[in-house]
Amino acid sequence: MRPLRGLVRPRPRSGARVTSAVLALCLASSALLALAPSAAAAEVRTEAARVPSGSGADAVELDTTLYLPPGDGPAPAVVLAHGFGGSKQSVASDAQHLAERGYVVLTYSARGFGGSSGQIGLNDPRYEVADLSTLLDLLADRDEVELDGDGDPRVGVAGGSYGGALALLGAAYDERIDAIAPQITWNSLTAALFPSQTGTVDAGTVAATPQDAGAGVYKRLWAGLFFGVGSVPTGGLLDALGGATGGSEDGDEENADSGGGPASADGLILPDLSSLDPAAVEQTLICGRFRADICAAYQTAATTGTLTPEIAAVLDRSSPAGVLDRIEAPTLLIQGTQDSLFGLGQADANARGIAADGTPVKVVWFPGGHDSSASDQVTADLREQVAGWFDFHLRQEGADPGTGFEYPAPTGLGGVGQIQGDSQTVVAGAYPGLDGGDAAARRNIALSGPAQPVVTPAGGTPGALTTVPGLGALTSALGGATLEIPGQFAAFESQPLDAAVEVVGAPTVELAVAAPGGSATLFAKLYDVAPGGGTTLPAGLVAPLALTGISADPARPTTVRATLPGIVHRFEAGHTMRLVVSSTDQAFALPADSAVYSVALAGPAEVAVPQVEGRTGADTGSSRWWVLLGVLVGLGLLGWAVALLWGRHRRRQVSAVEPDGEDVPLRFEGVTKAYKDGFVAVRDLSFEVRRGQVLGLLGPNGAGKTTSLRMLMGLIRPTEGRISIFGHAAGPGAPVLSRLGSFVEGTGLQPHLSGRDNLQLYWAATGRPAADAHMEEAIEVAGLGTALDRPVRRYSQGMRQRVAIAQAMLGLPDLLVLDEPTNGLDPPQIHAMREVLRSYAATGRTVIVSSHLLSEIEQTCSHVVVMAKGQKIAQGTVEEIVGTGGTVLVGLSDDADTDRAIAVLEGLPGVSAGRTDEGLIADLDGYSRAAALQALVGAGIDVDHFTPRRRLEDAFLALVGES
């Protein structure tokens, strides 16, 4: 089980490492130019120590590391708290980063985790929060830490998830904390683990989520994950049973040797338990590192699935919800949009509670969370935001980060695990509804559908599947699909949207529900349905509804106001919104008894979706301007050397647009591609293609065909020479590439989307008007029929190939480039593709085809370029490559004319002819085929066919063999 951390940082990709290296080089250059000293990572000193905290039976030792920055003067301090299941090692990189910026940073393992002793109290104010105050006392005694007063350090606290809640609670209980930055954390553990999103919230914020005070649907899988992580035995646990272990989970301590019982296979020294009370041993092993009251609460919840007053007391004690009015430290709230554990509503409640008394609050939503890791870039941006927050509020340095609101630019690809790279950020001046500001704007979307029966099966099995908690990557690998069980849900739909609708926050809807016995457990969710029927459940999120006291009569149902999950999603024009209300979900505890509910729309029969206006920017971090400046200065220093090399390269190229460009769509002139290891993939390649031609690019594997196409498309640069498209130099980002459509090296289709959605998404990414796509013509080329609206993951290879070719033909490009277009196609499909390419070129456009199927090239292409070992070895029309003379097969309408035909042919200079098993064969020995045919016809012989016996394959093999 991986730790349930805050901003989960994936291992850097190779591309990210290269980018980091370039930035480092540029920043180093700018630092030399400015003659400014830089704080090297090696100058940060660390001190590890075990710090006692608490008293009596609750006394513990906390495993800590203090990071001391370069410099002599006192500096503000930051305490970094880790996520549940982590330790001080989980935040080591963040600590190093802040220390290099000049902060004294204290990291530690919370009690019950890592190398710290004690039991887990779930951020109990009596234990974990008191431990934080002990650490603040330690900082106040350090000469390196700036003080606001006697015993009062200038200090900020940050952390993700478990550590984020500690930052909130710490600021509420210890007024010495000057600024906090909690991330992906909770407001109420009760609402998070026993949600019931019914009722009305008196708030104008975008993601305000109600909670039934006395009821909720138990979040069974997430709670099980939490308890499983915390119940793993550690050294402290086995010590409590009378033995010792082989060290902490982070390797912070050397193995202890008790000299006691036998060593287990994994190195633990297990104690002799025979003399202990068996009941006590069993209870300790069951509860693991948790305190007894928390363990008891979990056991009750897991057994009954109900929220009891005792469970609520335990959870409320560890919830910031009841003490937010005490927080005076400026607060940066960071919450993830891909989070089925602590949704956007938890951050919304924290923002409202803290801002109510005038404390500055900034809200940032990012693409990621407990269900899906944030990208490297997003993680780095958030780390800069946290540092900028502390720079301003602890040092009074840098730009004021303000109290605004930031969220990812909505997209239509919102399934869990489907984070689309580093999306842009939308910046609003304020979080709607805070500080007396305007309430969030909402748009009403009409829904329709009759009242429907919804069956809940006995024991809740089988149950609907929406997302696997904490395993967004797995859900994505399974196609991001959800599973609704027929008969277990009611569905209501909007009309196709006439314009895109961007939803930022939690929609609301009114339902009419009736249930026998007066109670029901339901799950509401809002699907995005594409025109072809493909569905997306944004972030895989559902809204549990624990309903009590409702009507048992379907004719007189009870009206229920439901708040759907907070999402950031764009419903594209032509799509529909589908509200699904189901009776099961595998992530939650469900009623044991079967029942049939009645569910209908109530009130105005519409869903109200929140919307937020703001400005969009790819990078909104106000504290990152100096990084960009450093990059520019560094590039300036490197520019002189680059200019020398580039000038020499450019002198070999033609700078003006070629006058015959429209007649010559493609021209290679002396193109060479060599790599650093000395390998030359393409050498001095020159050829041109004229308008209306279908050119076949032939060659064995390794001939350089694909490399040539990649250079043509601007994916890689040639080492020497020039490639021009319609007279303009081709290269990465060249505007003329918009006139080119291509299919090279794989389809690149998104498997969870339908073929139609893939085509629409591809065209939308070009930024060109939808009317210019000529979508219907391209779809006709694909020839998939109704399969076009099925997910691509269900397609055969041939079907995928056809969609990819249609994608290349979107916009009807003037130059079409296809690499092995007939792979996976059956003979009828190959024949159809041949006709499509011929007719496409007949319109005056140009087609280039690279293929190993020489017979298809011979029947499809008008011209051929043959390559071998990176060089061109032949070029011409197909007829020229095959040869004007050579051997021909002569077919006669009447076999009786065979002898007379042989006599006519042998009467021609150098020609010999004779009968074979194939029929009449004539070796023309250079004599013109046209002249030989004319001689036969002139002699009155009826010729049925007159074809070269030498095929393109024969010519190709001969040419390659000669090369």
UniProtKB/TrEMBL annotation:
<dbReference type="GO" id="GO:0016887">
    <property type="term" value="F:ATP hydrolysis activity"/>
</dbReference>
<dbReference type="InterPro" id="IPR003439">
    <property type="entry name" value="ABC_transporter-like_ATP-bd"/>
</dbReference>
<keyword id="KW-0378">Hydrolase</keyword>
<feature type="region of interest" description="Disordered">
    <location>
        <begin position="241"/>
        <end position="264"/>
    </location>
</feature>
<keyword id="KW-0067">ATP-binding</keyword>
<dbReference type="InterPro" id="IPR003593">
    <property type="entry name" value="AAA+_ATPase"/>
</dbReference>
<feature type="signal peptide">
    <location>
        <begin position="1"/>
        <end position="41"/>
    </location>
</feature>
<dbReference type="Pfam" id="PF02129">
    <property type="entry name" value="Peptidase_S15"/>
</dbReference>
<comment type="similarity">
    <text>Belongs to the ABC transporter superfamily.</text>
</comment>
<keyword id="KW-1133">Transmembrane helix</keyword>
<dbReference type="Pfam" id="PF00005">
    <property type="entry name" value="ABC_tran"/>
</dbReference>
<keyword id="KW-0813">Transport</keyword>
<keyword id="KW-0812">Transmembrane</keyword>
<dbReference type="InterPro" id="IPR013736">
    <property type="entry name" value="Xaa-Pro_dipept_C"/>
</dbReference>
<dbReference type="InterPro" id="IPR008979">
    <property type="entry name" value="Galactose-bd-like_sf"/>
</dbReference>
<keyword id="KW-0547">Nucleotide-binding</keyword>
<dbReference type="InterPro" id="IPR000383">
    <property type="entry name" value="Xaa-Pro-like_dom"/>
</dbReference>
<keyword id="KW-0732">Signal</keyword>
<dbReference type="InterPro" id="IPR017871">
    <property type="entry name" value="ABC_transporter-like_CS"/>
</dbReference>
<protein>
    <submittedName>
        <fullName>ABC-2 type transport system ATP-binding protein</fullName>
    </submittedName>
</protein>
<keyword id="KW-0472">Membrane</keyword>
<dbReference type="GO" id="GO:0005524">
    <property type="term" value="F:ATP binding"/>
</dbReference>
<feature type="transmembrane region" description="Helical">
    <location>
        <begin position="625"/>
        <end position="646"/>
    </location>
</feature>
<dbReference type="GO" id="GO:0008239">
    <property type="term" value="F:dipeptidyl-peptidase activity"/>
</dbReference>
<dbReference type="InterPro" id="IPR027417">
    <property type="entry name" value="P-loop_NTPase"/>
</dbReference>
<feature type="domain" description="ABC transporter">
    <location>
        <begin position="666"/>
        <end position="894"/>
    </location>
</feature>
<dbReference type="Pfam" id="PF08530">
    <property type="entry name" value="PepX_C"/>
</dbReference>
<dbReference type="InterPro" id="IPR029058">
    <property type="entry name" value="AB_hydrolase_fold"/>
</dbReference>
